[in-house]
């Protein structure tokens, strides 16, 4: 695996992903698990984000400490399913601005189609966390990152809950400068572009559309 791909190998994540995969897990629990796993992943993905020195007065003395500038991070969910991960990042970094990129996969060609893009002002200067629970062929993530780079964004991290090896391969080839955080690496894609063993359609399970 490439050095800019971080696969979580953590018992807490394995436990939670096993419940996510279960077809009998209902919408509410599915949504909560996606958020919880995202929060755990965010701790690692925040590593390396720049801190600024601040002077703090403790009850005993003045000391120089380090804080994350409020404006330093943006979250960009790929609609729809990426929306399920936003609160997971906000739980630990509540001031992150949120941009939205809408993509759906054409069911025949599996090619992503962009239908919406609204990003916060000044996004080019921020560290941007692109979030989407599923990295299948990688097409949606590649196109979303292309859209961000076109707007001048330089520091991009991709976070997905489940990835297929095909998606990681395609994404790291297209964007070798992007660090990819994946909670769980699955076996392969099926003939319809679904991840195996996977968890089915993440958007439908999050929003109860099927
Ligand atoms: C799913 C998922 C990703 C994409 C992954 O979205 O949330 O965005 O597929 O597939 P890829 O890596 O092959 O591009 P979908 O197109 O089903 O749209 P939805 O979130 O609106 O359901
Ligand atoms: N999108 C999903 O929601 N699930 C998959 O397995 C592949 C793409």
What does this structure look like?
The longest helix has 19 residues, at 27-45. The chain has 210 residues and is an alpha/beta fold. The chain contains six helices and 13 strands. It has helices at residues 11-21, 27-45, 83-90, 139-150, 165-174, 202-207; strands spanning 5-7, 52-57, 62-67, 73-79, 97-98, 100-105, 112-118, 127-131, 134-135, 155-163, 179-185, 188-189, 195-196. It starts with a strand and ends with a helix. Strand 12 and strand 13 form a beta hairpin. The protein has a single domain (5-207), classed as 3-Layer(aba) Sandwich (Rossmann fold). The strands form three sheets. Strands 1, 4, 5, 6, 7, 8, 9, 10 and 11 form a nine-stranded mixed β-sheet that branches. The chain has a two-stranded antiparallel sheet with strand order 2-3. The protein has a two-stranded antiparallel ribbon with strand order 12-13. Helix content is 31%, strand content 30%. The radius of gyration is 17 Å and the shape is globular. The structure holds 1-O-pyrophosphono-5-O-phosphono-alpha-D-ribofuranose and uracil (URA). Uracil binds next to helix 6.
Main attributes?
210 residues; alpha/beta; Rossmann fold; two-stranded antiparallel sheet; binds uracil
Q: Mind telling me the CATH class?
A: Alpha Beta
- Enter the CATH topology name: Rossmann fold
Number of helices: 6
Provide the structure class: alpha/beta
Query: Major beta sheet, specifics?
Result: 9 strands, mixed
Helical fraction: 25-40%
């Amino acid at each position: 695996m490439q050095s800019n791909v971080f696969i979580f190998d953590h018992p807490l994540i394995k436990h939670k992903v096993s419940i996510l995969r279960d077809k009998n897990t209902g919408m509410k629990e599915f949504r909560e698990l996606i958020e919880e796993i995202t929060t755990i992943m965010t701790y690692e993905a925040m590593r390396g984000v720049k801190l600024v020195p601040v002077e703090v007065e403790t009850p005993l003395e003045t000391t120089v400490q380090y804080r994350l500038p409020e404006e330093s991070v943006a979250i960009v969910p790929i609609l729809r399913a990426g929306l399920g991960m936003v609160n997971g990042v906000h739980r630990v970094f509540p001031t992150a601005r949120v941009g939205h990129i809408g993509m759906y996969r054409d069911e025949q060609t599996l090619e992503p189609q962009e239908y919406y893009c609204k990003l916060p002002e000044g996004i080019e200067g921020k560290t941007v966390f692109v979030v989407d629970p599923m990295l299948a062929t990688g097409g949606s993530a590649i196109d979303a990152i292309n859209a961000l780079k076109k707007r001048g964004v330089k520091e991009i991290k991709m976070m997905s809950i489940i990835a297929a090896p095909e998606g990681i391969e395609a994404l790291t080839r297209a964007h070798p400068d992007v660090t990819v955080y994946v909670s769980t690496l699955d076996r392969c894609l099926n003939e319809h572009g679904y991840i195996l063993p996977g968890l089915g359609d993440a958007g439908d399970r999050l929003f109860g559309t099927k």
